[in-house]
Design goal:
It is a single chain. With 98 residues, this protein is α+β, with helices and mostly antiparallel strands. The chain has 2 domains: 45 residues, no CATH class; 41 residues, no CATH class. The protein has 5 helices and 4 strands; from the N terminus they run H-E-E-H-E-E-H-H-H. The strands form 2 sheets. A two-stranded antiparallel ribbon has the order 1-2. Strands 3-4 form a two-stranded antiparallel ribbon. Strand 3 and strand 4 form a beta hairpin. Helix 3 packs across helix 4. The chain is elongated and about 45 Å long. The chain starts with a helix and ends in a 10-residue tail after the last helix.
Length: 98
């Protein structure tokens, strides 16, 4: 895997190159491993929450990025509302002074 490692490092840098299992339930073998960025690795964890919305499944972090929303905002909404409302509810400003 050295050749693919060098290629990944050239594109993303050594500090942003990690080894990752394609199937996180599988073994660390040549056929089940790849080089990924830290963000890609974070989205391939067993404890991630996956959300299905309009036929597409992604993690909460991936949906937040796609919706141009902070992760914590989306995460909090999903604890309170349905997926549909969490994804489409407009942001309200708080009344009064800060």
């Amino acid at each position: 895997m050295y050749k693919s490692y060098k290629k990944h490092v050239m594109e993303f840098g050594e500090e942003n190159t990690e080894i990752d299992r394609i199937d996180f339930n599988g073994n660390y073998s040549k056929h089940n491993c790849r080089w990924v960025t830290l963000q890609e690795q974070a989205n391939n964890k067993r404890d991630n929450v996956f959300i299905l919305y309009k036929g597409k499944t992604m993690t909460v972090a991936q949906w937040a990025k796609k919706l141009n929303m902070k992760y914590i905002t989306l995460y909090t909404r999903l604890k309170r509302y349905s997926v549909e409302k969490s994804f489409t509810k407009s942001l309200r400003t708080w009344p009064g002074k800060w």
